[in-house]
Design brief:
The structure holds two protein chains of two kinds.
Chain A lengths: L17 E14 L2 E14 L3 E5 L6 H8 L7 E6 L2 E2 L5 H11 E4 L11 H11 L4 H14 L15 H13 L5 E5 L7 H18 L2 E6 L2 H4 L4 E6 L2 E7 L4
Parallel strand pairs in A: 3-8, 3-9, 6-7, 7-8
Antiparallel strand pairs in A: 1-2, 1-4, 4-5, 9-10
Helix pairs in contact in A: 3-4, 3-5, 4-5, 5-6
Chain B lengths: L1 H13 L1 H40 L2 E5 L2 H4 L12 H9 L8 E16 L6 E10 L1 H8 L23 E5 H6 L3 H4 L16 H18 L11 E7 L5 E12 L4 H4 L2 E5 H9 L8 E6 L5 H14 L4 E5 H4 L1 H39 L1 H10 L3 H35 L4 E2 L8 E2 L8 H28 L2 H6 L2
Parallel strand pairs in B: 3-7, 4-6
Antiparallel strand pairs in B: 1-8, 1-9, 2-3, 2-5, 2-8, 4-7, 5-6, 10-11
Classes of the chains: A alpha/beta, B alpha+beta.
């Protein structure tokens, strides 16, 4: 059996060159007695294997867009296609299984399971895809090594610094080899130096693994690493341009 | 599953104080149920032992006696009862189950004390029995819930004229002083001064009794004696003299003031005179109470096969008090179990609701990672189950410890229907079904209680959960 390479390229699913395809997607929330429109007929395509960034001011709809791409929310109108799968056609359990296999998340607040060690947090997604124990262990250790946390594998989140926690979160998002990793303001809770190192790490991982990374951010450091930049304002896609890193 | 258990257990440890408070509620519920259950079990065993020692497990009557025989027991005598007893004894099914089989004769009549200055009489309810069989029956103690056996020689096979009476009857007949009974007031003066007419009746009864017994009063032992007057099976009055060798409290006042126990031969002589001696019942004491239904069914079939007009009744039917006490304590136990169940339910719902609220963001995170709704539901249900299991285990262990301490403390009490103190015991260790039932019951309640917040957690929209601060 080949040794697990955490940076190995994921296999593309579906015939499309776009890993994400949104067609006239709208999202309206009910906030108290008021309907709030977060997205207004957004159509976009995000190609495979890119470091893509969604930028926009607070309340512009970035997080809503990521939630829809991450299949944790459903659009009020339009269709969302991820990895060639029309998400709206899946039931709740199927969507959960789809996320478990194809999508990794990195959150602004790290969102690690506090009662699990760094090792167990990274291992958790592999349990959801019923991976055999030996392979699980190999992958988890390799991933922790890739993010430089082998020495801290047994520590709980409250025993780690913010940067270390975010590294664990990155390892957790990548360990199963997902098609897409979604990161919502991943550096917002970190100081600039730590944020820069995290960006470097993600960029390095992305280049080696060729996983599609999609960020929502207004961190200029992050934007400078982007292959694709999608600007969004008041729920509408303003423009799509290629980033400097391309 | 291993990961679910790991997360559940660690989360319980993380909120240790909350877990301990809720676990304590479960433990207290288990403790209360087991201690009260152990107490009631011991009461039931004590009552059953008391009843079985006195009247056996089963009694065979002539058809109709159970409902109508009290007014005229002699009319319901069992013919050729020795043959019936042989039939039962030699039956391959019932025979081996029997510890003691003994005939009894119930009777009613008037007891009178006309000795010396006393002139008192009272209706009585009598029972004729075989003293040696009675002694063997008194030694039955299958559940170790009876008083330690002490031989009682006040009734004897060798002396058919000796009998026992209730303390109340002894009081009414003015026998307190002769029997050396304490807290027993003397009779009023009017009853202690017979007039001429009564003196004649007294002499007639004494002569009749002396004639029937074939003895001379002058040769009687210097113990208090009473005259027992009853109608024979053919309606003629008959009198025998009973030497009262002791008085025995009966627990119920009405019975205490009417009770007379005498050897079977004396009772038969009083009821049947020189006619064929019959009996009103055949008492069967079994080795084990659990054989009762099988023995009863077999006897019923046996009598039907042999065309015998006999009826079988168990001790529960003959002592309604037993059933009443069992039902009362069972109701109280059920009530306590319900209250404890409700307390555990609310405690676990409250704790698990707090856990869900505190971990809403975590729920959103792991749902985003791909955990299904059912996974979230399982996670919180397992936590509730663990609280229930840990609390119930602690409660059961504590109950066993407290029961052991009480059982060794030498405490005594007077159970319902009894007149003498017995050791106070809590039968918890000897009731594995009770322990397992209480454990499973409360652990199940905790699990069901956790289902409500667990369902709520499972239904949380992922984005709302992730937004939760």
């Amino acid at each position: 059996m080949d040794r697990f390479n955490p940076m190995a390229q994921p296999v593309a699913v579906g015939p499309s060159a776009a890993v994400v395809r949104l067609n006239q997607v709208a999202k309206t929330y009910r906030s108290g007695a008021v309907d709030v429109t977060a997205l207004k007929g957004v159509s976009l395509e995000i190609p495979y294997h890119r470091f893509s960034v969604v930028i926009g001011a607070s309340g512009s709809g970035k997080t809503t867009l990521l939630n829809l791409i991450g299949c944790i929310d459903s659009p009020s109108a339009g269709t969302v296609e991820v990895c060639g799968q029309k998400v709206g056609e899946l039931g709740d359990e199927a969507v959960s299984d789809f996320r478990a296999r194809n999508i990794g998340f990195i959150f602004q607040t790290f969102s690690l399971v506090p009662v699990l060690s760094a090792y167990e947090n990274v291992e958790y997604p592999l349990l959801l895809v019923d991976m055999p124990a030996a392979e699980r262990r190999e992958r988890t250790l390799a991933m922790l090594e890739a993010v430089g946390l082998t020495a801290h594998a047994g520590r709980r989140p409250n025993e780690l610094s913010g940067g270390q926690r975010q590294r664990v979160a990155i390892a957790r998002a990548l360990v199963k080899g997902p098609q897409v990793v979604l990161a919502d303001e991943p550096t917002a809770n970190l100081d600039s130096a730590t944020g820069a190192s995290i960006i470097e790490l993600m960029r390095r991982v992305q280049e080696q693994s060729r996983t599609t990374f999609i960020f929502a951010t207004h961190d200029p450091q992050l934007m400078s690493h982007a292959d694709e930049i999608y600007s969004i304002r008041d729920g509408e896609l303003l423009d799509h341009r290629h980033g400097d890193a391309r | 599953m291993k990961m679910l258990l790991k997360i559940a257990f660690r989360n319980l440890l993380r909120n240790l104080r909350r877990t301990m408070m809720t676990g304590s509620a479960v433990a207290a519920g288990t403790l209360a149920m087991l201690l009260f259950g152990g107490f009631t079990s011991y009461i039931f065993a004590g009552l059953e032992t008391n009843s079985v020692q006195r009247i056996g497990h089963l009694t065979v009557f002539r058809d109709g006696y159970f409902l109508l025989g009290a007014g005229n027991p002699a009319a319901y005598g069992i013919d050729h009862y020795q043959d019936v007893m042989k039939l039962i004894q030699h039956d391959p099914v019932v025979g081996p189950m029997i510890n003691v089989m003994t005939p009894t004769q119930s009777l009613v009549g008037i007891a009178g004390n006309f000795s010396g200055d006393v002139d008192a009489s009272k209706t009585f309810l009598g029972v004729g029995l075989i003293p040696s069989d009675r002694e063997r029956m008194r030694q039955w103690d299958e559940f170790k819930a009876g008083r330690p056996y002490t031989p009682d020689s006040r009734l004897s096979d060798a002396d058919p004229s000796r009998g026992l009476i209730g303390v109340g009857l002894a009081r009414v007949l003015g026998l307190c002083a002769p029997l050396g009974l304490q807290d027993c007031p003397p009779l009023p003066a009017a009853m202690a001064s017979p007039d001429r007419e009564n003196a004649q009746v007294k002499q007639d009864l004494a002569d009749l009794a002396a004639h029937d017994l074939g003895t001379d009063r002058a040769g009687a032992k210097p113990k208090p004696q009473i005259d027992l007057l009853a109608a024979t099976s053919v309606g003629a009055p008959n009198v025998v003299q009973l030497t009262v060798s002791g008085a025995e409290p009966q627990g119920v006042k009405e019975l205490d003031e009417n009770y007379v126990a005498m050897p079977l031969s004396l009772a038969q002589q009083l009821v049947y005179g020189r006619g064929e001696h019959k009996i009103t019942g055949i008492v069967l004491q079994l080795h084990r109470s659990e054989d009762l239904p099988a023995a009863r069914a077999r006897l019923t079939a046996l009598f039907a096969q042999n065309h015998l007009n006999l009826d079988v009744r168990d001790f529960g039917e003959l002592t309604p008090f037993y059933g009443q006490v069992v039902r009362m304590f069972s109701s109280i136990f059920l009530f306590i179990a319900l209250v404890m169940g409700v307390i555990v339910l609310f405690a676990v719902v409250n704790t698990m609701t707090m856990n869900v609220m505190e971990r809403t963001n975590e729920i959103g995170t792991i749902r985003a990672m791909g955990v299904r709704r059912s996974g979230i539901r399982s996670q919180f249900t397992i936590e509730g189950s663990l609280i229930g299991a840990i609390g119930a285990t602690a409660g059961a262990a504590l109950a066993l410890l407290i029961a052991a301490l009480i059982n060794h403390a030498g405490l005594t009490w007077i159970p319902p229907g009894n007149v003498q103190e017995v050791p106070l015991r809590l039968d918890v260790a000897g009731r594995p079904l009770l322990v397992v039932g209480a454990w499973v019951g409360l652990a199940l309640v905790a699990t069901l209680a956790a289902l409500l917040p667990a369902n709520r957690a499972a239904r949380l929209p992922v984005v709302d959960a992730l937004r939760h601060v």
